[in-house]
From TrEMBL:
Record protein name field: Predicted dehydrogenase
Listed InterPro entries: Gfo/Idh/MocA-like_OxRdtase_N, Gfo/Idh/MocA_oxidrdct_glycsds, GFO_IDH_MocA-like_dom, NAD(P)-bd_dom_sf
Keyword Cytoplasm: no
Keywords, in A-Z order: Oxidoreductase
Species, as recorded: Pyrinomonas methylaliphatogenes
Coiled-coil intervals: none
Family annotation (PANTHER family): BCDNA.GH03377 (PTHR43818)
Entry keyword annotation includes Transmembrane helix: no
Domain GFO/IDH/MocA-like oxidoreductase: 133-272
GO-annotated molecular function: nucleotide binding; oxidoreductase activity
Domain Gfo/Idh/MocA-like oxidoreductase N-terminal: residue ranges: 5-120
Amino acid sequence: MGDTVRIGIIGTGFARTTQIPAFLACEGARVVAIASGHRENAARVAQTFNIPHVADDWRELVARDDLDLVSIVTPPATHMEMALAALDAGKAVLCEKPMAMNADETRRMVERAERTGAFALIDHELRFLNGRRRMRELVQSGEIGRVTHIKIFFRNATRARPDRPWNWWSDAKQGGGVLGAIGSHAVDSVRWLLGTEVEEVCCSLATHIKERRDAQTGAMRPVTSDDEALLLLRLAKTDLVEDATGLISLSVVEAGRQDHFTEIFGTRGALRIEERGELWRAEPSGDRWEMVPVEPTDLAPGLLDNGWSRGFTAFAREIVKALREGRRSVEGAATFADGHRVQLVLDAARRAHESGCWTSVNGS
């Protein structure tokens, strides 16, 4: 690969707000093309960021011979088809989370990536926050002893207004819902931070706003996706994880200050990481958190200051560097195999919700 990594983007949502500005801040990266099912959206983004090529068919973008990386930033129902096509076209692939609709789809994606030997990653950008990396180092080194519990809490009110229009996020058939959107990050965090797997899960999903108005027709449409997800976890035993449990609480319809944190409790203390990577530690019998010094993660120009933006700023830089050097992986990044393991947990969580029972995370 040459000195410049040529990037094609499919999708105009998170790509516009985060991915494109972060890639453009990377040395040796150029966004060459953007595609959207609504050409006017792609054209608007292309004009904003001076992207030369626009398409309303993602297949046209994947077929281009002037692209090195295809970033898939679309609803989950489209991920498998797009990823398989991009891999078959010889492109490196970055796929948004959740990886796909179910583990049957993610398994096919893993198999295709392995067969082609391609660069294929999932966008779990929170792994690249300096604070989270430091947290993982402390856990893996045994700094807080054997892990007994992990707690992940995410709350905002982005979908609390009932007059917010219906879109794909309201549709379970397109992969909408907080379990996939945020739960995928939470499960990945459990696996990556602790170095273990989820063995069993109990889950309750809720849809608190049950109808939204279609912006095109004006008619009310049912919301079939979840806006709240509560999960209990039982974790596999390792040298550092024993009889450990997990709690994940996610909501996008709760009023009040937005909050997002992860806490890990061990036999010799506890760690807490906040939204932008602020890291805290507590002693075993302590009654307060003390800050752990961590260098803040960079933020690309023009991005909102949050964990996702700072994480992707760092992740984009590592992606571009790896491709320029001809590498097929990024150290510490979530692979397609990681995405598949996360999907197995999400599938088990949905089965647990339907049955009302603890459910094993089966599959390989």
